[in-house]
Write a structure and sequence with these properties.
The protein is mainly alpha-helical. It is built from 8 helices and 3 strands, in the order ααααββαβααα. Helix 3 packs antiparallel against helix 4.
């Protein structure tokens, strides 16, 4: 952001060279202050924080710094969001933040089964599992998997091959089979 203090000087004083020089010095300091404010705001937001600030958060929350800076930011966002009531929506959001995929959740016996489709960050499964194991009650087991539809899934979703043949393409088939 470049502010020109000289523009705020009254018209009849603008011809004075010393005032122009003073305004130029003020411009420099105003720009420095503005940049410091923007940096300070970004450091407060986990999504934009520097590696140093992310490390401070990790030390505070006592978690090991693992992965790229983006992955570490996602883990922190997930932890900060988990203070809400732990329900299906919260669990899905935690996994979605870390993996970037569409999340489906089922509950079988005492196991929470999470399937992720179209995961952008397949390395995030380890982080997601680590975060959820801390958040879930001890009597529940956890299973997180990448979801790839199989021919059995297609067979279960469609009654006959003619139904599959009527689809516009593989993408539609993939999106429909869950």
């Amino acid at each position: 952001m470049r502010k020109n203090v000289y523009e705020y000087i009254p018209e009849y004083l603008r011809g004075i060279r010393e005032l122009y020089e003073i305004a130029d010095v003020f411009d420099y300091y105003i720009e420095e202050i503005y940049d410091a404010i923007v940096d300070g705001v970004y450091e407060k937001l986990v999504s934009y924080a520097s590696e140093e600030r992310i490390s401070q958060w990790e030390r505070l929350l006592e978690i090991a710094p693992e992965g790229t800076l983006t992955e570490r930011r996602n883990v922190l966002k997930s932890i900060m969001r988990k203070n809400r009531k732990l329900d299906e929506e919260t669990i899905k959001n935690m996994v979605k933040v870390i993996t970037g995929g569409t999340v489906y959740m089922d509950f079988f016996d005492s196991t929470v089964v999470i399937r992720v489709k179209n995961a952008e960050n397949t390395l995030g499964f380890t982080e997601a599992e680590r975060m959820l194991k801390k958040a879930l009650p001890a009597h529940l087991a956890l299973s997180i998997r990448i979801f790839y539809p199989t021919w059995n899934d297609v067979k279960n979703s469609y009654g006959a091959w003619s139904d599959v043949a009527s689809l516009s393409g593989w993408d539609e088939l993939y999106d429909e089979v869950v």
